Amino acid sequence: MNEATMLDAVRAMTKRGVDGFHAGDVEGLMSIFEEDAIRLIPTEPEPLRGMDAIRKQIEDGISPDGIAHQAQFNTSMLDHKVLGPDLIITTGTWELVAPDGDVIMNGYWSNVVRIKNGVARVVLETGGTYASG
Hints:
The protein is α+β, with helices and mostly antiparallel strands. The chain has 3 helices and 6 strands. It has a single domain, classed as Nuclear Transport Factor 2, Chain: A, CATH 3.10.450.50. It is 29% helix and 43% strand. Strands 2-1-6-5-4-3 form a 6-stranded mixed β-sheet. β5 and β6 form a beta hairpin. The radius of gyration is 14 Å and the shape is globular. The mean pLDDT is 92.
C-alpha cells in the first residue's frame, strides 16, 4: 500500500470519528479503534485499554452530563510517518468548542494507525492539552 492510499484511509477514519462525535453516535466513534486499542488522553488518569474501557469513556463524554455534550470537535493532521506496510503514525491538533463558541479544551495528539483492507483503525491514541493562562 502506498503512502497516499494510507493517508486517504486515515482521513476517512478521522471523518468517521468526527461525524460519529457530532451525531452522538458511540458506535460510529468506536469504529475508529482496533479491538485492542490503547487510549491515553488528558481527561483520564490511567490508560484506557480495549473497546469496553474506551466505549465507557466515550459514552460518558458525550452523555448529556459529559464535557463534550453538544460540543464541536475540530481536528487537523499536521504530520505523519509511515512505520510499515500497514502502520502509520499521525500527529495533529484538536479543539473542543462549546455551542456558544468558547473553546472548552484544545491540545495535540498522535495516533498509531493500522490499515487493513483499506480501513484505518487506531491502535494507540495519545493526546494532551495545551496549558491555559
